[in-house]
Amino acid sequence: MTQADYRTLHVPEGLAGERVDAAMAKMLGLSRTRAAELIAQGLVVLDGDPVAKSDRVLPGALLEVTMPVVADPLEVTPEIVEGISIIHDDDDIVVIDKPVGVAVHPSPGWQGPTVVGHLAGAGYRISTSGASERQGIVQRLDVGTSGVMVICKSERAYSRLKNAFRERTVDKTYQALVQGHPDPLEGTVDAPIARHPGADYKFAVLDGGRPSVTHYKTLEAHRYASLLEVHLETGRTHQIRVHMSALKHPCVGDLTYGADPTLAARLGLQRQWLHAVRLGFEHPGSGEQVSFESAPPQDLARALEIIRDAH
Protein backbone atom coordinates (compact mmCIF):
# COMPACT_ATOMS: atom_id res chain seq x y z
CA MET A 1 0.00 0.00 0.00
CA THR A 2 1.25 3.48 -0.73
CA GLN A 3 -0.48 5.32 2.11
CA ALA A 4 -0.31 2.70 4.90
CA ASP A 5 1.37 -0.55 5.86
CA TYR A 6 -1.17 -3.14 7.09
CA ARG A 7 0.11 -5.94 9.34
CA THR A 8 -1.64 -8.98 10.85
CA LEU A 9 0.21 -11.06 13.45
CA HIS A 10 -0.62 -13.74 15.97
CA VAL A 11 0.64 -13.14 19.51
CA PRO A 12 3.31 -15.76 20.37
CA GLU A 13 3.34 -17.73 23.64
CA GLY A 14 6.33 -15.77 24.91
CA LEU A 15 4.38 -12.50 25.01
CA ALA A 16 1.33 -13.84 26.85
CA GLY A 17 0.13 -11.35 29.48
CA GLU A 18 2.12 -8.40 28.07
CA ARG A 19 0.50 -5.01 27.57
CA VAL A 20 -0.57 -4.43 23.97
CA ASP A 21 1.87 -1.53 23.46
CA ALA A 22 4.78 -3.58 24.80
CA ALA A 23 3.84 -6.60 22.69
CA MET A 24 3.54 -4.44 19.57
CA ALA A 25 6.92 -2.87 20.23
CA LYS A 26 8.56 -6.30 20.39
CA MET A 27 6.67 -7.84 17.47
CA LEU A 28 6.99 -4.92 15.06
CA GLY A 29 10.26 -3.34 16.18
CA LEU A 30 8.53 -0.10 17.19
CA SER A 31 9.13 2.13 20.17
CA ARG A 32 6.56 1.88 22.96
CA THR A 33 5.68 5.53 22.28
CA ARG A 34 4.97 4.85 18.59
CA ALA A 35 2.91 1.78 19.48
CA ALA A 36 0.87 3.84 21.96
CA GLU A 37 0.29 6.53 19.28
CA LEU A 38 -1.08 3.94 16.84
CA ILE A 39 -3.39 2.55 19.52
CA ALA A 40 -4.61 6.05 20.45
CA GLN A 41 -5.37 6.72 16.76
CA GLY A 42 -7.61 3.64 16.63
CA LEU A 43 -5.28 1.84 14.23
CA VAL A 44 -4.84 -1.32 16.32
CA VAL A 45 -7.39 -4.14 16.57
CA LEU A 46 -7.08 -7.24 18.79
CA ASP A 47 -9.30 -10.19 17.85
CA GLY A 48 -11.58 -7.79 15.99
CA ASP A 49 -11.96 -5.24 18.79
CA PRO A 50 -10.27 -1.85 19.38
CA VAL A 51 -7.79 -1.87 22.26
CA ALA A 52 -6.32 0.40 24.92
CA LYS A 53 -2.55 0.42 25.36
CA SER A 54 -2.82 -1.12 28.82
CA ASP A 55 -4.90 -4.12 27.65
CA ARG A 56 -3.16 -7.47 27.94
CA VAL A 57 -2.60 -9.94 25.12
CA LEU A 58 -3.30 -13.66 25.09
CA PRO A 59 -1.28 -16.21 23.10
CA GLY A 60 -2.67 -16.82 19.62
CA ALA A 61 -4.70 -13.58 19.59
CA LEU A 62 -4.86 -11.84 16.21
CA LEU A 63 -3.29 -8.39 16.22
CA GLU A 64 -4.15 -6.13 13.26
CA VAL A 65 -2.12 -2.94 12.91
CA THR A 66 -2.43 -0.17 10.30
CA MET A 67 0.76 1.90 10.15
CA PRO A 68 0.50 5.12 8.09
CA VAL A 69 3.53 5.68 5.92
CA VAL A 70 5.29 8.81 7.12
CA ALA A 71 5.93 11.03 4.11
CA ASP A 72 9.41 12.38 3.46
CA PRO A 73 9.16 16.06 4.50
CA LEU A 74 11.53 17.01 1.66
CA GLU A 75 9.65 15.17 -1.08
CA VAL A 76 8.26 17.47 -3.77
CA THR A 77 4.52 16.88 -4.16
CA PRO A 78 3.22 18.04 -7.56
CA GLU A 79 0.10 20.18 -7.02
CA ILE A 80 -1.40 23.25 -8.62
CA VAL A 81 -1.26 26.08 -6.06
CA GLU A 82 -3.97 28.69 -6.34
CA GLY A 83 -2.63 32.23 -6.53
CA ILE A 84 0.75 31.56 -8.15
CA SER A 85 0.93 33.40 -11.46
CA ILE A 86 3.55 33.11 -14.18
CA ILE A 87 5.06 36.49 -15.12
CA HIS A 88 7.59 35.17 -17.67
CA ASP A 89 8.59 31.80 -19.08
CA ASP A 90 11.32 30.79 -21.53
CA ASP A 91 13.81 27.95 -22.04
CA ASP A 92 16.09 29.15 -19.22
CA ILE A 93 13.93 30.69 -16.51
CA VAL A 94 10.41 30.98 -15.16
CA VAL A 95 9.49 34.11 -13.22
CA ILE A 96 6.54 33.90 -10.86
CA ASP A 97 4.45 36.09 -8.60
CA LYS A 98 4.45 34.19 -5.28
CA PRO A 99 1.43 34.67 -3.02
CA VAL A 100 1.63 34.73 0.78
CA GLY A 101 1.36 31.34 2.51
CA VAL A 102 3.45 29.45 -0.03
CA ALA A 103 6.97 28.19 0.71
CA VAL A 104 9.56 28.11 -2.05
CA HIS A 105 10.50 24.46 -1.44
CA PRO A 106 9.69 21.64 1.02
CA SER A 107 11.37 21.70 4.42
CA PRO A 108 10.99 19.84 7.72
CA GLY A 109 7.99 21.16 9.62
CA TRP A 110 6.29 22.69 6.56
CA GLN A 111 3.32 20.80 5.16
CA GLY A 112 1.75 23.56 3.10
CA PRO A 113 2.01 24.37 -0.63
CA THR A 114 5.34 25.07 -2.35
CA VAL A 115 6.53 26.85 -5.47
CA VAL A 116 8.47 23.82 -6.71
CA GLY A 117 5.43 21.61 -6.11
CA HIS A 118 3.29 23.95 -8.20
CA LEU A 119 5.80 24.05 -11.05
CA ALA A 120 6.04 20.25 -11.01
CA GLY A 121 2.25 20.00 -11.05
CA ALA A 122 2.04 22.48 -13.93
CA GLY A 123 4.52 20.44 -15.99
CA TYR A 124 7.59 22.67 -15.78
CA ARG A 125 10.97 20.99 -16.05
CA ILE A 126 13.31 22.60 -13.56
CA SER A 127 17.13 22.58 -13.46
CA THR A 128 18.46 19.46 -11.75
CA SER A 129 21.24 21.28 -9.92
CA GLY A 130 21.00 21.55 -6.14
CA ALA A 131 19.37 19.30 -3.53
CA SER A 132 16.34 17.45 -4.93
CA GLU A 133 13.80 19.62 -3.11
CA ARG A 134 15.61 22.82 -4.12
CA GLN A 135 16.29 22.14 -7.79
CA GLY A 136 16.44 25.33 -9.80
CA ILE A 137 16.17 27.53 -6.72
CA VAL A 138 18.63 30.43 -6.67
CA GLN A 139 16.65 32.72 -4.32
CA ARG A 140 13.96 32.40 -1.66
CA LEU A 141 11.09 34.44 -0.29
CA ASP A 142 9.67 33.76 3.19
CA VAL A 143 6.34 31.95 3.41
CA GLY A 144 4.87 35.22 4.73
CA THR A 145 6.36 37.39 1.97
CA SER A 146 4.80 37.76 -1.47
CA GLY A 147 6.21 38.95 -4.77
CA VAL A 148 8.38 38.31 -7.79
CA MET A 149 11.00 35.56 -7.89
CA VAL A 150 12.91 33.58 -10.50
CA ILE A 151 13.42 29.81 -10.82
CA CYS A 152 15.93 28.26 -13.22
CA LYS A 153 14.90 25.72 -15.87
CA SER A 154 18.30 25.10 -17.48
CA GLU A 155 21.67 24.19 -16.02
CA ARG A 156 23.18 27.25 -17.70
CA ALA A 157 20.63 29.52 -16.03
CA TYR A 158 21.15 27.91 -12.63
CA SER A 159 24.93 28.33 -12.78
CA ARG A 160 24.86 31.92 -14.05
CA LEU A 161 22.07 33.22 -11.82
CA LYS A 162 23.42 31.52 -8.71
CA ASN A 163 26.70 33.33 -9.39
CA ALA A 164 24.88 36.63 -10.05
CA PHE A 165 23.12 36.42 -6.68
CA ARG A 166 26.43 35.55 -5.02
CA GLU A 167 28.18 38.47 -6.71
CA ARG A 168 25.29 40.80 -5.71
CA THR A 169 24.63 41.91 -9.29
CA VAL A 170 20.89 41.15 -9.05
CA ASP A 171 18.56 44.09 -8.34
CA LYS A 172 16.24 42.91 -5.55
CA THR A 173 13.70 45.63 -4.80
CA TYR A 174 11.02 45.41 -2.12
CA GLN A 175 8.38 47.69 -0.70
CA ALA A 176 7.88 47.66 3.07
CA LEU A 177 5.35 49.52 5.16
CA VAL A 178 7.07 50.21 8.48
CA GLN A 179 5.82 51.75 11.70
CA GLY A 180 6.75 55.38 12.34
CA HIS A 181 9.25 57.40 10.32
CA PRO A 182 12.84 56.22 9.84
CA ASP A 183 15.45 58.89 10.57
CA PRO A 184 17.16 59.57 8.23
CA LEU A 185 14.44 59.12 5.59
CA GLU A 186 16.96 57.38 3.35
CA GLY A 187 19.87 55.25 4.50
CA THR A 188 21.73 51.97 4.74
CA VAL A 189 21.63 49.37 7.48
CA ASP A 190 24.91 47.43 7.62
CA ALA A 191 24.50 45.04 10.54
CA PRO A 192 25.33 41.31 10.85
CA ILE A 193 22.44 38.86 11.26
CA ALA A 194 22.42 35.53 13.09
CA ARG A 195 19.83 33.18 14.49
CA HIS A 196 18.16 34.62 17.59
CA PRO A 197 19.72 33.05 20.72
CA GLY A 198 16.36 32.77 22.45
CA ALA A 199 14.10 31.61 19.61
CA ASP A 200 14.89 29.20 16.75
CA TYR A 201 12.33 30.73 14.39
CA LYS A 202 13.73 34.27 14.66
CA PHE A 203 16.87 36.11 13.63
CA ALA A 204 18.57 39.14 15.16
CA VAL A 205 21.36 41.66 14.66
CA LEU A 206 24.27 40.05 16.49
CA ASP A 207 28.04 40.45 16.55
CA GLY A 208 29.58 37.56 14.69
CA GLY A 209 26.53 37.14 12.45
CA ARG A 210 26.64 37.02 8.66
CA PRO A 211 27.30 40.37 6.93
CA SER A 212 23.97 41.91 5.91
CA VAL A 213 23.35 45.16 4.03
CA THR A 214 19.96 46.79 3.42
CA HIS A 215 19.38 50.09 1.59
CA TYR A 216 16.08 51.93 2.13
CA LYS A 217 14.38 55.08 0.86
CA THR A 218 11.13 56.60 2.15
CA LEU A 219 8.52 56.82 -0.61
CA GLU A 220 5.59 58.02 1.52
CA ALA A 221 5.38 59.22 5.13
CA HIS A 222 2.00 58.98 6.87
CA ARG A 223 0.75 59.48 10.40
CA TYR A 224 1.29 55.95 11.63
CA ALA A 225 3.64 54.41 9.08
CA SER A 226 6.03 54.98 6.18
CA LEU A 227 6.18 53.20 2.84
CA LEU A 228 9.79 52.35 1.98
CA GLU A 229 11.56 51.15 -1.13
CA VAL A 230 14.17 48.63 -0.03
CA HIS A 231 17.13 47.25 -1.97
CA LEU A 232 18.87 44.16 -0.65
CA GLU A 233 22.61 43.91 -1.16
CA THR A 234 22.74 40.58 0.68
CA GLY A 235 19.96 38.01 1.03
CA ARG A 236 19.77 36.76 4.62
CA THR A 237 16.69 35.06 6.01
CA HIS A 238 14.24 37.69 7.35
CA GLN A 239 16.83 40.40 6.51
CA ILE A 240 14.47 43.34 5.92
CA ARG A 241 12.28 42.38 8.87
CA VAL A 242 15.27 42.09 11.22
CA HIS A 243 16.94 45.31 10.07
CA MET A 244 13.72 47.35 10.27
CA SER A 245 13.03 45.96 13.73
CA ALA A 246 16.59 46.88 14.77
CA LEU A 247 15.86 50.46 13.66
CA LYS A 248 12.75 50.40 15.91
CA HIS A 249 10.56 50.63 12.80
CA PRO A 250 9.30 47.05 12.32
CA CYS A 251 7.25 46.14 9.26
CA VAL A 252 3.59 46.80 9.96
CA GLY A 253 1.89 43.53 10.90
CA ASP A 254 5.16 41.75 11.74
CA LEU A 255 4.29 40.62 15.27
CA THR A 256 7.31 38.29 15.34
CA TYR A 257 9.63 41.30 15.20
CA GLY A 258 7.84 43.73 17.47
CA ALA A 259 5.04 45.28 15.39
CA ASP A 260 2.01 46.76 17.14
CA PRO A 261 -0.76 44.09 17.16
CA THR A 262 -3.46 46.77 17.57
CA LEU A 263 -2.39 48.52 14.37
CA ALA A 264 -2.14 45.19 12.53
CA ALA A 265 -5.68 44.28 13.59
CA ARG A 266 -6.97 47.70 12.55
CA LEU A 267 -5.48 47.19 9.09
CA GLY A 268 -6.71 43.60 8.84
CA LEU A 269 -3.16 42.31 8.36
CA GLN A 270 -2.34 38.68 9.08
CA ARG A 271 1.34 39.05 8.09
CA GLN A 272 4.13 41.56 7.66
CA TRP A 273 3.64 44.32 5.07
CA LEU A 274 6.51 43.33 2.80
CA HIS A 275 6.43 42.62 -0.93
CA ALA A 276 9.09 41.85 -3.55
CA VAL A 277 8.13 44.37 -6.23
CA ARG A 278 10.98 44.08 -8.74
CA LEU A 279 13.74 41.70 -9.79
CA GLY A 280 16.34 42.71 -12.36
CA PHE A 281 19.30 40.72 -13.70
CA GLU A 282 21.28 39.78 -16.78
CA HIS A 283 19.31 37.10 -18.60
CA PRO A 284 21.37 33.88 -18.40
CA GLY A 285 20.52 32.99 -22.01
CA SER A 286 20.48 36.22 -24.01
CA GLY A 287 22.79 38.30 -21.81
CA GLU A 288 20.29 41.19 -21.94
CA GLN A 289 19.35 43.12 -18.82
CA VAL A 290 15.77 42.13 -17.86
CA SER A 291 13.44 43.32 -15.11
CA PHE A 292 10.18 41.86 -13.80
CA GLU A 293 7.64 43.49 -11.49
CA SER A 294 4.78 42.57 -9.19
CA ALA A 295 2.22 44.91 -7.63
CA PRO A 296 1.40 44.47 -3.92
CA PRO A 297 -1.55 42.08 -3.48
CA GLN A 298 -4.98 42.97 -2.17
CA ASP A 299 -4.35 42.58 1.57
CA LEU A 300 -1.31 44.88 1.46
CA ALA A 301 -2.92 47.39 -0.90
CA ARG A 302 -5.98 47.64 1.37
CA ALA A 303 -3.82 48.19 4.48
CA LEU A 304 -1.82 50.90 2.70
CA GLU A 305 -5.01 52.74 1.70
CA ILE A 306 -6.19 52.77 5.31
CA ILE A 307 -2.82 54.22 6.38
CA ARG A 308 -3.01 56.86 3.65
CA ASP A 309 -6.51 57.88 4.77
CA ALA A 310 -5.62 58.09 8.49
CA HIS A 311 -5.46 61.64 9.87
Automatic annotation (TrEMBL):
The keyword Hydrolase does not apply. The keyword Transferase does not apply. It holds the Pfam family S4. SMART domains: S4. Its EC number is 5.4.99.-. Keywords: Isomerase, RNA-binding. It catalyses: a uridine in RNA = a pseudouridine in RNA. Signal peptide: none annotated. Responsible for synthesis of pseudouridine from uracil. This is Pseudouridine synthase.
